[in-house]
Amino acid sequence: MIELSRLTKRYGDQTVVDDLSFSVQPGVVTGFLGPNGAGKTTTMRMILGLAAPTSGTVTTNGRRYDRLTAPMREVGALLDARAVHGSRTAADHLLCLAYSNGIPRRRVTEVLEQVGLAGVAKKRVGTFSLGMSQRLGIAAALLGDPAVLMFDEPVNGLDPEGVLWIRNLMRGLAADGRTVLVSSHLMSEMALTADHLVIIGRGRLIVDKPTETFMRSQGIHSVVVRTPEADDLAHRLTEAGAHVTDPGDGTLEVTGMDSLAIGELARDAGIALAELTPQRSSLEAAFMDLTRDSVEYSAAAGPIQRQDLVR
Length: 311
What we know:
The protein is built from twelve helices and 13 strands. It is of the alpha/beta class. The model is unreliable at 306-311 (pLDDT under 50).
């Protein structure tokens, strides 16, 4: 697994990663989240030995990355899909990596097929779209059949089929018992993919929890209720201690009481219900609320008015 202990990185007087400690366990997909400038990429670079910590330690399988005897056989990583020699073909790019790491040539063919690039193996990488480059980067990460995998924004440039493919790939890798760390800004995708969340802001740890636990703790739960007797039900719910918002269209939004209790109250009062739907905040909403004070650049709310442009 990957273990960080009080990891800190400073550039001059700027602290990018600040006393960060967490571990990435095998058998689950861990989502590594944070606003722009939170220190995610710097942290991943330190895990891979591409940046030296100012203080603290980071190990993979108990050792620093530069002490691993066969790095690509133990850790596979995608940090920058465009960091390839554009004049090489996809197959040659992977062959160079394979030869330099003692990986059998057959693995090149296997991973190209796995990521869907077998048909363009002889094409020059410089002609690839961003989505194709992402697939090639993933192929490189898988080349050594490692037990630990790290992906930084792996779904950038992928079409819907590609997004579904990488989601299933990551979950399949975790199901095989591998350690999978994924950084992404797509909250909707992380909600579907990640079993565990590590969220940082301004270089510091904010959350280290299973996804479901985080959602239960952060989400504002409410229940949408529709009934022809909205006024009567709203009165009874308020008396029972619930908070009720009434838009005036026969639909109530209720917080402070779950759907079972609302249904039982309505049944006992003889009130017919046309709808009783539990609502839960999305991961995106919970993330935005939690990291509001950690955003590096915040745009003005609302559209720019025309008169603001001509003054």
